[in-house]
């Protein structure tokens, strides 16, 4: 079991995606930064989600987009030149009772670089260390990264992410076939009111996932729609409106 309570609320990129101002704060906190992580913990979350990508000098930093705010590709820059938080520094600053969903953004260069320099290989020692002191979930859109970690780190749960034209009803059998532990879907890909009525209802997809041994995660539900996803049986929600979703549930 990955999540102790259902549904578990996970802070998206910390407190939420974008620059958000927590209640009682004077200034906004930027996503994928330590202040955002600590704001999520202060709001009562026991899980946070972070985005991780690698740099030119084989370090790992927190960033969702492949480019920096200045437009440079993260993978082309040294970690210090990106101005982004290093993954190990963020882990070191977080209390060990905070669980982390590590969303790994692999890069095109992983297809041709030496195996020791690929994102998964660089991430492996960090995960081995962190798995000894906190709960983890590693998620990615990249099956090659997940199967690498599955073989190298069998005790850390792994989840396949899915998006738009590869929706939940495709991802469930794919994740089960890969021997993973979870499957994640965006609300835009497979929402409560998804227009493709030829396919099974969302609660049926979640039920099949559970029967296949997969826990289910939905990301970006609003405070208004979160109860519907809870009713559909999702095990966890990655949210932007942390206080709103907590209140709604």
Describe the protein in words.
The protein is of the alpha/beta class. It is 30% helix and 20% strand. The protein is built from 9 helices and 11 strands. The chain has helices at 34-42, 79-82, 87-93, 119-130, 143-152, 168-177, 202-211, 226-231, 242-248; strands at residues 8-11, 19-20, 29-30, 47-54, 60-62, 99-104, 136-140, 158-162, 182-186, 215-219, 236-239. The strands form 2 sheets. An 8-stranded parallel beta barrel has the order 1-4-6-7-8-9-10-11, surrounded by 6 helices. A two-stranded antiparallel sheet has the order 2-3. The longest helix has 12 residues, at 119-130. It is globular, with a radius of gyration of 17 Å. The model has no long low-confidence stretch (mean pLDDT 94).
Topology of helices and strands:
Elements: E1 8-11, E2 19-20, E3 29-30, H1 34-42, E4 47-54, E5 60-62, H2 79-82, H3 87-93, E6 99-104, H4 119-130, E7 136-140, H5 143-152, E8 158-162, H6 168-177, E9 182-186, H7 202-211, E10 215-219, H8 226-231, E11 236-239, H9 242-248
Parallel strand pairs: 1-4, 1-11, 4-6, 6-7, 7-8, 8-9, 9-10, 10-11
Antiparallel strand pairs: 2-3, 4-5
Return residue spans where pLDDT drops below 50 for at least 5 consecutive residues. Answer: none
Distance between the termini: 21 Å
Beta-strand content: 15-25%
SSE string, helices as H and strands as E: EEEHEEHHEHEHEHEHEHEH
Overall mean pLDDT score? 94
How helical, in percent, are the residues?
Answer: 25-40%
Structural class: alpha/beta
Total number of strands: 11
| Largest sheet entry | 8 strands, parallel, barrel
Query: Which sequence of strands runs across the widest sheet?
Result: 1-4-6-7-8-9-10-11
- As a whole number of angstroms, the C-alpha radius of gyration is 17 Å
Helix count from the secondary structure assignment:
9
Shape, please? globular
């Amino acid at each position: 079991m990955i999540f102790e309570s259902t549904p578990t609320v996970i802070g998206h990129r910390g407190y939420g995606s974008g620059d958000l101002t927590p209640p009682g704060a004077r200034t906004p906190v930027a996503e994928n930064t330590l202040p955002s992580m600590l704001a999520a913990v202060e709001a009562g979350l026991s899980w946070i989600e972070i985005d991780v990508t690698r740099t030119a000098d084989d370090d790992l930093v927190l960033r969702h987009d492949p480019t920096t705010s200045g437009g440079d590709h993260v993978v082309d820059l040294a970690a210090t030149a990106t101005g982004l938080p290093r993954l190990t520094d963020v882990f070191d600053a977080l209390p060990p009772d905070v669980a982390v969903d590590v969303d790994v953004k692999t890069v095109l260069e992983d297809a041709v670089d030496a195996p020791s320099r690929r994102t998964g290989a660089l991430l492996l020692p960090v995960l081995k260390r962190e798995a000894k002191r906190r709960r983890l979930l590693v998620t990615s859109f990249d099956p090659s990264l997940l199967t690498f970690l599955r073989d190298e780190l069998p005790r850390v749960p792994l989840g396949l992410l899915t998006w738009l034209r590869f929706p939940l009803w495709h991802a469930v059998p794919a994740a089960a076939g890969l021997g993973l532990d979870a499957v994640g879907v965006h609300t835009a890909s497979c929402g409560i009111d998804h227009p493709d009525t030829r396919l099974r209802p969302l609660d049926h997809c979640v039920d099949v996932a559970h029967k296949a041994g997969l826990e289910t995660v939905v990301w970006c539900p609003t405070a208004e729609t979160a109860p519907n996803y809870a009713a559909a049986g999702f095990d966890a929600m990655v949210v932007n409106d942390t206080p709103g979703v907590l209140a709604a549930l």
